Amino acid sequence: MANLVHGILLPKQFVSLLAGGLVISTGENEFSEERRVIEPFKRGLTAAVTLEGRMSCRIDDRSPIQIEAPSVSLILSASEHRREQVFSPGQTFRYALVHLSIGIAESHTGIGFEALLTRAMQRNGGHAPVFLTTAADAAVRSIASQIMVCPVQGAARDLFLLGKSLELVACAIDSCLPVDALSEVGNGLSSGEIERITAARDILVRRYAEPLVVSQLAAMVGLNAKALGIGFRRLFGTGIPDFLQEYRLQLAYNILAAGEAGVAETAYRVGYTPAYFSTLFRNRFGLSPRELR
User: For the residues of 146-201, what is the DSSP string, one character each?
Assistant: First the structure.
């Protein structure tokens, strides 16, 4: 008789970043008998790579979706649904999974969640939540393996995992939703404009501690400052200064919560003076940096 479990399988690694808006789970489990796991789908975007093994996944009362390694899956859900996973006996199942809340998905993928869900539903026959899966190529498997092993330790570990997790999400979207499925998501922007504005976002993320000069950023990606500002808000739903501030504060929250640095050092790391940082932090999270520290 199958072993019925209510709850998640114990992961080999479980990491929460961006104030809980991004969660990484990896695991390697051996199944001598069939294992059945029932739990809700979380709201948001999930990218999952199956590196070894096979399973089926049933959403609510739909027909089961068969998943076999190596595969990459993209799951989008705007509300909670019932999920039932069945793991085949006599196997090792190895996976890496990244879950983004709706807010983090929108701010870090550059695509409105509702727009992405709508396009995915069109590809999925109009059903929500959407569960798309396809074969994982070598690049996707490599990213998943790096997340599992995480060769970087110490203060840079979370930054490494954050970067690789977002890379995995990008690959999952690219693999499961072809370019034509996303062609209408850019809010009237051309593909060239989307590419340049996304490049500007990437520069902000890489050089988050540096002073922001929008005109210089625009010149770096081949746009004027006005076009970049308007396009950035259309594509990401927020202005450039607000995006950078949120990214800095979320990163600072993780540094302080992990006890990696004191308040002053954290402030300087993310590009602020300690006094200004403390004011911004309290306004954003409702507590002072020292209370979190």
Answer: HHHH----GGGHHHHHHHHHHHHHHHHHHHHS-GGGGTTTTTT--HHHHHHHHHHH
Name every residue whose Cβ is closer than 8 Å to that of residue 171 and which is 6 or more positions away in sequence.
47, 72, 139, 140, 143
Global pTM value: 0.60
CA 104 to mean position of chain CA atoms? 7
Q: How far apart are CA 148 and CA 26, in angstroms?
A: 6
* Average pLDDT, rounded, for the chain: 86
202 Cβ contact partners less than 8 Å away, ≥ 6 residues apart: none
In contact, 95 and 51? CB cutoff 8 Å: yes
Query: For 148-190, what is each residue's pLDDT tens digit?
Result: 888 888 878 899 999 999 999 999 998 888 655 444 444 567 7
> Residue 165's pLDDT is what?
94
Evaluate whether 98 touches 24 at the Cβ level (below 8 Å).
Answer: yes
- Read off the pLDDT band of 293 (50, 70, 90): low
pLDDT value for 267: 94
Asked if residue 282 lies in contact with residue 290, where contact means CB atoms within 8 angstroms, the answer is no
In this structure, the strands spanning 3-6 and 35-40 are: parallel
Is there a contact between 39 and 100 (Cβ–Cβ < 8 Å)?
Answer: no
Which domains are assigned to the chain?
3-181 (2.60.120.810), 186-292 (1.10.10.60)
CA-based end-to-end distance of the chain: 49
Contact status, residue 98 vs residue 165, Cβ threshold 8 Å: yes
Query: Of how many residues is the chain composed?
Result: 293
